[in-house]
Amino acid sequence: MLARAVAHLSEAALNANLRALSRRAGAALLLPVKAEAYGHGLDLVARVAARHPDVWGLAVATPIEAERLARLDLGRPVVLLSPAAPEEVGPLADLGVRLPVASLAEAGALPPHARAHLKVDTGMNRLGARPEEAVAVGRLLAERGLLEGAYTHFAIADEPDLSYAREQFARFQAVLAELPPLLAHAANGGGVLSFGALPGMALARPGLAAYGFAPPHLRAAAGLRPVQTLRARVNQRHTVRAGEGVSYGALWRAPQDTEVAVVGMGYADGYPRNATLKASVLIGGERRPVLGRICMDQMMVDVTGLDVGPGDWAELWGDGDITVSEVAAWGDTIEYEVLTGLGARVERRMGEEGAEG
Hints:
Layout (H helix, E strand, L loop, with lengths): L4 E6 H15 L2 E5 L1 H6 L2 H8 L5 E6 L2 H9 L6 E3 L5 H9 L4 E3 L2 H6 L6 E4 L11 H13 L3 E5 L11 H14 L6 E3 L3 H7 L7 E2 L11 H7 L5 E13 L4 E2 L5 E2 L4 E6 L16 E4 L2 E6 L7 E4 L10 E5 L6 H7 L4 H6 L6 E5 L6
Parallel strand pairs: 1-18, 2-3, 2-9, 3-4, 5-6, 6-7, 7-8
Antiparallel strand pairs: 1-10, 10-13, 10-17, 11-12, 13-16, 14-15, 14-17, 15-16
Protein name: Alanine racemase
Family: Belongs to the alanine racemase family.
Pathway: Amino-acid biosynthesis; D-alanine biosynthesis; D-alanine from L-alanine: step 1/1
């Protein structure tokens, strides 16, 4: 069957972003590929990243993701960033997955062949051991010969005021000073772009930045490029008569006879429904408005005067006229939610830039 919507991934853009971020961080990368590589496709991104000389390992958020990634056998360490259930620890250790540890109980329960990364909560107040507890946990792991790394996570690293992130990093450094040498990592994408090289950090974990996104005040200087271009096929073209409504609720009515293309992409595929009456797409070489309410499987676009028909493609976002950032703004949300919400019905393809669907 033909793909109705395709997310084209640029290998060149991904590799360039990884190179730029590693150089800015002055460290190798532990690349987050959680949530289907931020909606880009875990397998596709992981295979490219595993060949990149600046990538030390790959990080995920759930045990299921860790198992799947480990079984790809890509020759790079797999690090689980969120806790595993007790019954999952042994099987994950058997696969070589690096496990997060944040308590003496977790440290004591690890099998002898496990490798652990100590999670230190320096102010995110989400996961991890508080600094006053983390040293004891790290020492127990070291005594057992299981301690490979330690990490923390910045709560505020992509805003102009970085004072809170500096406080967090100071707390993390104080913990590391009490432990033997290890692979330390703290900087997310905002941290890499805001701070550059952080002393004592062997690794950096840029997430969405690796896929080409960062706040405007950081993005340009980094030279990041969006990796993904999303296109969907035109399913039908028809004429809407003057005065007729389009889509649920008839929120838009044609002021005159209007040629409409029905594009096979909707909110079930991850396009934000809240973009209704605000969104545009690139079709037939022009930016054209989406008419009426965005549906579960379709959206309707004004193609009056364009040579567009079934089988042609509309570009919904990419590295050009319409960006994910713009779509997110239309949907009253953020790039993370738009990208990670991209549905399973959208085919992912890694290849040359501009490859057609």
